[in-house]
Structure formats: structure tokens, C-alpha cells
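Standup notes, structure subgroup. Blocker cleared on the adenosine-5'-diphosphate input:
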Amino acid sequence: RWSRVKGRLRTSVGEDVYSSWFARMDLEAIQQESVHLSVPTRFLKSWIQTHYSDKVLTCWQAEIPEVNRIEVTVRTPMRAATPAVKDAAAPAEHRREEQRSAPELRSTNATTPAASNHDALGGSPLDPRLTFASFVVGRSNTLAHAAAKQVAEGRRGDPVMFNPLYIHSGVGLGKTHLLQAVTWAGNSGTERKVLYLTAEKFMYGFVAALKTQTSLAFKEALRGIDVLVIDDLQFLQGKTTQAEFCHTLNALIDAGRQVVVAADRPPSDLESLDERVRSRLAGGLVVEMASLGEDLRLGILKSRVVAARAHHASFDVPQPVLEYLARAITHNGRDLEGAINRLLAHSKLNNQPVTLEMAEHEVRDLIRPQEPKRIKIEDIQRVVARQYNVSRSDLLSSRRTANVVRPRQVAMYLAKTLTLRSLPEIGRRFGGRDHTTVLHAVRKIEGLVSKDTTLSDEVESLKRQLQE
Ligand code: ADP
Ligand code: MG
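Run returned:
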């Protein structure tokens, strides 16, 4: 019977989920209306209880209709490691499975120090240059820097002040630099384990672990970490991985461990993530790093020159050239670094000192002649209102008549695609609507423009009017 129930579970949740959560579940006893199951860890127990208790019950009821209660307990490592003779009805196949899993249980569940798990897990590679020492602080990143520093200097057992720490910004503005700085600083000197993982690495690590049936070890390893640092969270994909990430996040935070996350947008705009993960992420400290101000750009350029001079003592960039570059290159930190590298290469190869002329020539492609026109939400509302012959206050009102609803959705869609405003911000600017309303509108119009040519022409014409 137990093997039939397992078969049903496997079919109902799919092979991946089954091998991840249920492969090590054992039947302990059946007493009248209740079934007693056991798993090796508390983590598995709570996960199964919160996510799969209904499914498990249904699968049992299909075999034994009287069952109306499922109990899950954590078995001790000792007991699990010694194949116990159980329910005489337990099929031989079940006992074999238990024996197979026993050594694994011992290594992950007994007193194995977290360190070995941590080593086995392996973080993403770190760049030795990305430290606090080389991070330049300016107006746009003061708060993010201070928070990161605070996290890095914490010691095991310290109260955690903001959890998770969530840093977001556009590309090339120093998120990875800051996260790796936290990792370097945290791992040197203190007894804490700081693990830096890109979201992709987390994802592949988890999927690989699922394939090799070591996902339990993977989970246990993650939970031995004091500070978990996840970069580029916007790339986290896949339902199972997200569920796993969500659980890891909760488990770590509940255990008083620190989580640091970076992404290219605020939590509310991580549209593919589950609502629970988003709200958990938003529940800590969310810090945005604005684009680099001119002072910061100058600081970064100078620090790059200093770094280059460590290996090329004769290399120097005169102050006017630095100022020119800081003013001309507005885009991101990577371009600043690239500019210095080019000047270095050019002056080395030609054995020439750096001049303003050389700089102008070398970095011309990094300079944006003119920032593209910034489109304002008010402009969008005005143009849309005119096109559909409604008033702007209609768009912001709570009226739901069809002649207002569609233009309003179009306007929100344009606001999302043509500006850098977040969904909550757009909602606020549209008469205080919720971000889910905005998301709904965006998806609606996205879906329609591919089918409805009249609408897609209208949208294109609106875009042209706005970009002029
Ligand atoms: P992101 O992860 O936000 O895309 P990175 O951390 O990769 O950006 O930064 C891009 C480049 O700019 C890196 O070389 C980084 O060292 C540099 N950089 C960005 N911000 C700073 C800063 N405040 N101080 C020093 N270097 C910076
Ligand atoms: Mg990055």
C-alpha cells in the first residue's frame, strides 16, 4: 500500500518534486484514521506540511478512504541510519530504499560541520579587485555602502539589523562590486561563512542536485551559511527553484542568518517571482543605487588609475583628462573602467603620455552624444488622453467605463515600457492604484498588441508622438 501511495504522489507532484521532497519519507505506522510518516529533517517536515499536506492526504485516501489525518515527524539520525523493521506490510522495495539513503543521511544530518558542506557547495567565482577598499563612495551609493559595510562587519550571533538587505540599480552601477566586497570582508577575519552565488548558480546548483538526488545535501549546505549573498536575482527562474529559494530565504532569516540580494529592479518589479518571495524581499531594507554622479565618476576613474599604476608605474592621467572623462562618460562603471584600460593600452603601445586629444579619440564610442529624451508619465497621460478623446483626470479617476478603461491601460503600459518607473510608482501616478493593477494592464495590452492590429497601430503612433 505504501508503495502505491508513493506511486500516486509521484504522479501527482512530478518526478522532480517527488525526488526532492518525498524520496526519503518513510511510513512509520497506520493507526485507524491517521497515518504517521517520518522524514530526516525538520526542514523537510515543515516544507511538506506547509506545501504538500493536502496532496499527501489525498493520495492516502485513494488507498484507504478512512484516513483523515497525516502526521509527519522527524526521525533521529540514529534511527534512520539503522534500518528498522517496521510495519510488517512495508514492501521490500521500501526497505532497500531506506538502506540506500542511510549513509547520505548520516553525512548530512549528523554532526557534520557546516564548513565541509559549504566547501562542497562552492560559490560563484570572486574577483579579488572588488573590495571595500576599491569601492568609491558618493551621494548615489552612500546608503547601500553603509548597509553593506554593516553586514560585512557583523559577527556570528550579532542581531541582524536588516534582513534581507536588498540592493538594486541599473547595470554597471556597482552592485556586484558591493556584494563581492561583503563576501571578501565577511570571509576574512571572522568565523562566519559568507557564500556568494549568482542566482543562476543557485539555480543550476539546485537543478544539478535534483538530478543527482543530492538536493537534500544542497539544502542542508545552504543552511549552514551565516551570510548568503545572491547576485542578479532577476535571473532566478523556474517554479521549483523559486520555491526552493523562497524556503531557503525563510529558513535563513528565521534562523537569524543574514541574506543579501542584488537585482536590477525593486522587489515589486520582479514580475516572474512569486508574491510571497517578493513581499519577503521587500520586508528587509531595500536600497536603490542611483546612477553615478559626476563626483563619483571622477572618484572611480582616479581609483582605476591608481590600480593601473601598481603595475605600470609610468602611467598617469592628467587631472583635466580625468575631468573630461567624468563629464563625458555618463553611462556606467564598466565604461569608466574601459576608458582607463584603453588609455593605458594606447599609451603603453605607443609609448606616449596621455593627452586630452588622445582621450577624446580613444573613448569616442563610449560617449553618448545626447541622452535619449526622458519621457514623463504626465506626457504619456496627456498624449493618450488626446488620442482617445478623454480627459487626463478621467485616466486618473476610478471610472470603469470601457471608453476610459482601455486608454488608461494603454497609458500604464506605455509608462512601464517607456520610462524607468517601477510598477508601484506608476500606480501612484495613476490616481493611487495598486501595482498589481498596473501589472494587469501591462500584461493585457502586451497580449492585445500582438493580435489586434488597430490597437498596435495606435500604440505605435503614441510612441512616435512621445519620442518626438
Ligand atoms: P553591476 O553589478 O551593478 O552591474 P558592477 O559592480 O559590475 O555593476 O560595476 C561595474 C564596474 O564599475 C566594475 O568594474 C566596478 O568595480 C565599477 N564600479 C561601479 N561602482 C563603483 C564604485 N562605487 N566604486 C568603484 N568602482 C565601481
Ligand atoms: Mg552585477
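Discussed briefly. The beta strands are 26-31, 34-39, 69-74, 165-168, 194-198, 227-231, 258-263, 285-288.
Next: hand off to the docking folks.
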